Amino acid sequence: MVDEMRIHSFTPSTFVNGPGNRAMIHFQGCTLACPGCFNTFTHSKTGGEEISVHDLINRIPLTVDGVTISGGEPFLQPESLLELVISLREHHDSIVVFSGFYLKEIQKMTCGPKILNYVDVLIDGRFDPEKIAENGLRGSSNQTVHLLTGRHSLDEFQERNVEITIDPEGNLTMTGFPTSDLRQGIDSLA
User: Residue 8 in 3-state DSSP?
Assistant: First the structure.
């Protein structure tokens, strides 16, 4: 059993990272360094927050329709990811995972096949800034939505929206798939 895992952030409710109302977990740490990555602040292995899987599970509202996991890169913490998806399956009907690794790479990883047994949808592939996706829940068109169970359909992953929230301290958080114009506009405000 894993004592701690490292996450970048947790969002208890989002409507733009998969079907329905979902909790969103961003893992901390990524070594893929895809050019043009939108989440570069999640790359450091030492950033974010250390948390136990148990404590993270307790943060997830029971009223959400499912949980989406992204990064950083979740598969770089394979034991933690496995423990997390096993625990999630006990309480939630839908698990979606985004990974920069391709399905074939994940299938060869330690814990990879076991993790995939608990995942409903895997969206895989390295981000390619030359192939920006125009629709759906993919950053670039080379990424693939893999339906690993019969729980979802491809139609549920075709919308492309953004949520922007501002907390009481004035910190802005954006989730979803913003256009480059929107990202540049927000960056100019900072």
Answer: strand
Distances in whole angstroms, Cα of residue 31 to Cα of each of 13, 26, 96, 98: 28, 15, 21, 15
DSSP state of 183: H
In the DSSP assignment, the letter for residue 134 is: S
- Identify the bridge partners of residue 6 per DSSP, sorted by sequence position: 50
Q: Is 153 helix (H, G, I), strand (E, B) or coil?
A: coil
Helix (H, G, I), strand (E, B) or coil at 150: coil
Residues 51-93: tens digit of each pLDDT: 999 999 999 999 999 999 999 999 999 999 999 999 999 988 8
Closest-CA residue to 51 (of 84, 22, 23, 75): 84
Pinpoint the alpha helices (H) of 53-140: 53-59, 78-91, 103-106, 112-116
The answer to whether the beta carbons of residues 18 and 94 sit under 8 Å apart is: yes
Rounded Cα–Cα distance for residues 114 and 119 (Å):
9
The pLDDT tens digits of the residues spanning 95-141 come to 999 999 999 999 999 899 999 999 999 999 999 989 988 888 898 89
Cβ burial, residue 121 (10 Å; 0-12/13-18/19+): buried
Q: Give, as one character, the DSSP assignment of residue 81.
A: H
Please name the amino acid found at residue 68.
Answer: T
The reported pTM is 0.90
